[in-house]
Give the backbone structure.
Amino acid sequence: MELPTRPTLFDFHGVSMTKYFTDNWENIQNFEARPDDILIVSYPKSGTTWVCYMLDLLYFGNMGPEHRTSIPLHERVPFLEICAPPRPKGKDLADQLTTSPRLIKTHLPVQFVPKSFWEQNCRVVYVARNPKDNVVSYYHFGHMNGQHPEPGDWNTFLQKFMEEKMVFGSWYKHVNGWWEKKQAYSKLHYMFYEDLSENTGREIDQLCSFLGLSPSAEEKEKVRATVMFDNMKQDKMVNFSTIQEMNQDVFPFMRKGQVADWKNHFTVAQNKRFDEDYKQKMKNSTLRFRTEL
Ligand code: A3P
């Protein structure tokens, strides 16, 4: 398969995007959600795959081993807006899902979500990660994933993050936009990567109560153990090793999986600049992030 060229970033209705996420726009906007669809949402690199796998196991963990050993997670939980031929479009994969409920992943900012999800009153699970670890993870991802614009060096990338010139736009607007939505839309569960990292079992309990699921203690423990970083890193169906555009020799998709790895990347000066800018951008927000545990 021919590898795609790195795309350029452009302004799309006020949000920086690339063609891989806008080329199928009209079809995406006309997506027909069903009432039991569950939308898993995040800014890229917030722990999306982790949460997708948790939901997949909670709903379909008992389906038999073939489900987990032969179908990659990105097909079990399609990425709605992706359009990168010759791979199937995410929207088409979602349409073809035979599972009930259908689990669907998106990185869209709240204003871009197809309206049928709101009309059908679908459940939404949002996961957010502190911006310092988020940008570090995104930087490494940009290097290993040829479907993203050239990330440049670390300082340049960090600057672009602060300028909100990233694929899927501003981290600040994304996390706040969805946080505000949560205040008005009761079927939205807002999670944090740091909480997951601190106590995965507690977060699974909360997820189950939001989803109206009541697995046994044994089943929950099985999910908790299966989604541990080291297990997911080894699992070819969840670690994206089946995707050629991702060069895992540059950096593995399952890279570190830690809170506070930013301390290994930010200089003292970068940290100061980032904190000052953060304070300004988040001054009207009630969202609080932990940058260490
Ligand atoms: P790092 O690059 O910091 O390691 P996404 O799925 O949204 O693209 O997020 C990917 C990030 O989540 C990566 O972060 C990845 O290692 C981390 N991640 C994925 N599964 C995880 C798990 N089970 N435990 C901890 N971190 C996980």
